[in-house]
Amino acid sequence: MVELQSLQMNSVFHALGDATRRRMLRDLAGGERTVGQLAEPFAISLAAASKHIKALESAGLIRREVRGRTHVCRLDPGPLASAHEWLNFYERFWTNRLDALDRLLREEDARQSPKSKKGDDK
Amino acid sequence: MVELQSLQMNSVFHALGDATRRRMLRDLAGGERTVGQLAEPFAISLAAASKHIKALESAGLIRREVRGRTHVCRLDPGPLASAHEWLNFYERFWTNRLDALDRLLREEDARQSPKSKKGDDK
DNA sequence: CCTATATTCAACCACATGGTTGAATTACAG
DNA sequence: CTGTAATTCAACCATGTGGTTGAATATAGG
C-alpha cells in the first residue's frame, strides 16, 4: 500500500484545494492534454496556468512529457489513490463507529514523524 | 449522495492540506476532544490551535458543542465522505481506464458553475 | 536564417495563511 | 464578589499563494 508521508499529503491535498486544479484533473481524466489545452477553459494567463500545473506535478498528481515544444500532461494514479486511502480510513470509522480503530491510528502515528510539532516538516 | 459544491470542496481539501489539522482529525477519531486537548500535542499557542479548529469547523469536518466554558469537538462524517467520493471517481478512472467516464465528467461540470473562470468563487 | 508557437521565468502585487502576544469573554469555584 | 480556567478576539508579522506582465527559451516551419 502506497502511503504518503506528511509532506506529500500536504501538497496533494493543497493541490486538490483549488477549483482550477480540480478542473484540470478532470480534463486530464479525458486523456492527455498540453499546457495550452489545460489553460484554455480559464480566464487566466498561461503563466498562471503553468503554475497550477506545476503544483499538480510537484504533488505527483500528473506527469509531463516534453514533446518538441509542447508539454503533454497526463494523470498519475499513485498519489490520489493514497489520498483516497487516507480518507477511506476515516470513512471506515464513520460507517462502523468502531473505537477499536484507535489502534490503527496509533500505528499511523508511529509511521510518521515521531514528535509532530508544528514546523517539523517545513 | 452528498455532493459538495466547489466552494466547500475548496475548504475541505484546504483543511486536509495541513498536518496539524489532519492530526487533530485523527485524535477526534478517538472520540470527543476539547479545544485544549486538541491543542495539547502541538508546540503552538492555543490561539493558533483555535484557528485550526475553526478551519476544520467551517469546512464542516467537525462540529462543536459548547459545554460550560469548554468547547467539545467531534467529527462530522458528511463532508469527508464527499471528498472521498470525489477521489473515488478518479480511482475508478485509474483502475478501469474507461474513457466512457468522460460523460460523467461533463455531468459533474453541469452541476457546478457553468463558466468556471478563476475567481468565480472568491 | 527568420518568424511564429508553446511554454517558462522573473519581478511584482494583493491577499490569505499560520504563527505570535496581550486583552477580552465566559463560566466555574471559593 | 473574586479569582482562575477555557477559549476567543484583535492586532500584528513573515511567508505563501494566485494573479499579472514582459522578457527569455526552445522548437517547428517556411
Element layout with pairings:
The structure is a homodimer of 122-residue chains.
Chain A lengths: L5 H11 L2 H10 L4 E2 H5 L6 H13 L3 E6 L2 E6 L1 H20 L5 H10 L11
Antiparallel strand pairs in A: 1-3, 2-3
Helix pairs in contact in A: 1-4
Chain A binds a DNA duplex (30 and 30 nucleotides) through helix 4.
CATH-assigned homologous superfamily of chain A:
Winged helix-like DNA-binding domain superfamily/Winged helix DNA-binding domain
Considering DSSP H and I runs of 4 or more, what fraction of the residues of chain A is helical? 55-70%
Chain pair forming the biggest interface: A-B, 49 and 49 residues
- Please count the beta strands of chain A (DSSP E, at least 2 residues each): 3
Report how far apart the termini of chain A are: 26 Å
What's the CATH architecture name of chain A?
A: Orthogonal Bundle
- Largest beta-sheet characterization of chain A: 3 strands, antiparallel
Beta-strand level of the residues of chain A, as a percent range? 5-15%
Q: What top-tier CATH class of chain A fits best?
A: Mainly Alpha
> Treating each run of at least 4 consecutive H or I residues as one helix, how many helices of chain A?
6
What is the approximate shape of chain A? globular
